[in-house]
Amino acid sequence: MKILLVTVICILPTSIFASNSFYTSALNGFSEENFEKAIKYLEKDIVFNPKSSESYILLGKSYEGLEDKNNALKYYEIAFTLVPHNLELNFLIGKVSYELGLIQQYAEQISNLEILCDASCEEITRLKDLAE
Q1: 19 vs 1: CA distance, rounded Å
Q2: What is the pLDDT of residues 70-86, one digit of tens each?
Q3: pTM for this structure?
Q4: Dihedral of CA 22/25/31/37: which sign?
Q5: Which of 5, 42, 74, 87 is a good FRET partner for 118, with 20 to 30 A between their CA atoms?
């Protein structure tokens, strides 16, 4: 039992450090517009931190950077299950849905944003502007 406890104590800080390191490396890749690098590190990060909405959102943005809107939407939707109240995320889902021709889903994100913020909310305005 003592060996198991010592092993867990030794591995836990390493796992936390690895996760932070992966996300930091992903951010660096994303800021350099090296989306493949960002994706590689984010996929590793979510192994250690599967409830990190930030990682899923950045994965979606990275796939958008590669013009892969289907995978972008997939990761945005995973993040949405974790933080449905995130204004930027609602906008991103609506934008990609519109670009993919998923008009009903686009309209749902406008409805979500109307509930989450007032009518002058920047995200609602930007999302509605796509259809004009």
Answers
A1: 27
A2: 999 999 999 999 999 99
A3: 0.83
A4: negative
A5: 74
